[in-house]
Write a structure and sequence with these properties.
Blueprint lengths: L1 E5 L9 H13 L4 E7 L14 E6 L2 E6 L9 H21 L4 E4 L6 H12 L3 E4 L6 H5 L7 H16 L2 E4 L2 H8 L8 E3 L16 H7 L4 E6 L8 H11 L4 E6 L5 H8 L5 E4 L7 H7 L2 E5 L12 H7 L4 E4 L5 H9 L2 E4 L4 H13 L1 H15 L4 H15 L1
Parallel strand pairs: 1-2, 1-5, 2-4, 5-6, 6-7, 7-8, 9-10, 9-12, 10-11, 12-13, 13-14
Antiparallel strand pairs: 3-4
Helix pairs in contact: 2-3, 3-5, 7-10, 8-13, 11-14
Length: about 400
């Protein structure tokens, strides 16, 4: 069949959703023709595109149609909104005219699903909605916007979008529960996780990335990835302040909207180190560098954001400290598998206690790593992609 995938970002964009979209497209293209409806690259792209109204690139069963949206750098919100709005307005007529048997959407921009659902309804086609982050819950819980009529209207439109979907694909059980609580039939909600490639873990000995991360610390708690609005960053910095005289370091590798805030909170303290993203080739060594990996979700955002970094950490056989509410998907998996500990995202003392416990019990820490590796087998990426393919095919 002919599948139309609506998502503004697609390689050469380098966002997480662009990379996930590529993986999804490659999976669907094994058995179907796929058209991606994207915008001009604007998310730290590896390739510059000059202005055009519409550009089409084809590669076998995959066709990428790019509309001439603005391509301002993403770091200023007003310009980023311009990218969103120009994409949505230009993508609508192209989506209506593109041959398709099924419409599928992700959530970049946050109302891409509304566009895709409208296209599907107008053309009387089945619609599959792959929710990566749940909006407007994310914008509200992350304090990007406040309560008001705008949010109420956005929520109404999003519930309409979800009701149009033959299948709603979510990233975790907590997200499934939150979507169902909005009146969506649970039978139409399917959990498909990002999963991880189960390659052999690398040895950290002697690699420059490992040396840079561990430099001066006897024990490292590492957060690697996006520093977004969803994290309990103040709690982590307060815990690091308590632990810094014990030779322990809290290391953040990555960037995002809250990196500047983290730098302010840390204020140059020796117990916190902020580092930029490392090249993709070094990711296995970044995973191997930590004694424990930190995953954080602020209270109230469980089921709104599901950190997929968990699966790579498990596959690397590393222990996890989940600084999340106990009902979050990450906390449930870590607790059930015994591959780490859970701490309160509002209580630095609980984070301090968990890190001290892990450091004081090296045998237990090694056992957590072994259990993490064992649990990772349940989240093999290839199996998750096969499930996604089945879900899309069932929708038609």
């Amino acid at each position: 069949m002919r599948i139309l995938l609506v998502n503004q970002y697609y390689p050469p964009d380098t966002s997480a959703t662009a990379n996930i979209a590529r993986v999804v497209v490659e999976t669907l293209a094994r058995r179907h023709q796929v058209t991606v409806l994207a915008g001009r690259p604007s998310y730290d792209p590896t390739e510059y595109h000059p202005f055009y109204l519409l550009r089409t690139d084809s590669n076998g069963p995959v066709r990428v149609r790019r509309v001439g949206s603005t391509a301002f750098p993403r770091h200023r919100m007003k310009r980023r909104v311009s990218n969103y709005l120009s994409y949505l307005s230009l993508a609508a007529p192209v989506g209506l005219a593109t041959p398709a048997d099924l419409v599928m959407s992700m959530t970049d921009p946050p109302i891409a699903g509304l566009l895709a659902a409208s296209i599907a309804r107008t053309r009387r086609l089945p619609f599959v909605y792959n929710i990566r982050d749940l909006y407007p819950d994310m914008a509200l819980g992350g304090e990007i916007v406040g309560k008001g009529r705008f949010i109420d209207r956005w929520e109404q439109m999003h519930r309409w979008t979800m009701r149009q979907a033959s299948r709603v694909i979510v990233l975790g059980e907590d997200m499934r529960e939150r979507v169902a609580s909005k009146g969506i039939d649970p039978k139409r909600i399917v959990v498909v996780r990002d999963g991880a490639v189960l390659s052999d873990p690398v040895s950290p000995n002697g690699h420059p990335a490992v040396a840079a991360i561990r430099d001066g610390y006897q024990f490292v708690a590492l957060h690697a990835g996006n520093l977004g609005f969803y994290g309990a960053w103040e709690t982590l910095v307060d815990a690091a302040l308590e632990l810094q005289d014990e030779g322990m370091g809290m290391v953040f590798v990555g960037g995002g909207a809250q990196r500047g805030r983290l730098e302010e909170l840390a204020g140059g303290m020796r117990g916190v180190r902020l580092m930029p993203f490392r090249p993709a080739s070094e990711i296995p060594y970044v995973l191997a560098a930590a004694d424990v990996h930190v995953i954080t979700v602020r209270r109230g955002l469980e089921g709104v954001v599901v950190p997929s970094k968990l699966y790579g950490i498990l596959a690397a056989g590393r222990p996890v400290l989940a600084v999340t509410p106990p009902k979050s998907d990450v906390a449930r998996i870590v607790t059930a598998a015994g591959c780490g500990l859970v701490a309160d995202p509002d209580d630095p003392a609980s984070v301090v206690a968990a890190i001290r416990e892990m450091r004081a019990n090296p045998d237990k820490l090694r056992e957590m790593g072994r259990k993490a590796r064992e649990k990772a087998k349940e989240f093999d990426r290839e199996e998750q992609l096969r499930l996604l393919l089945e879900v899309v095919e069932e929708a038609i």
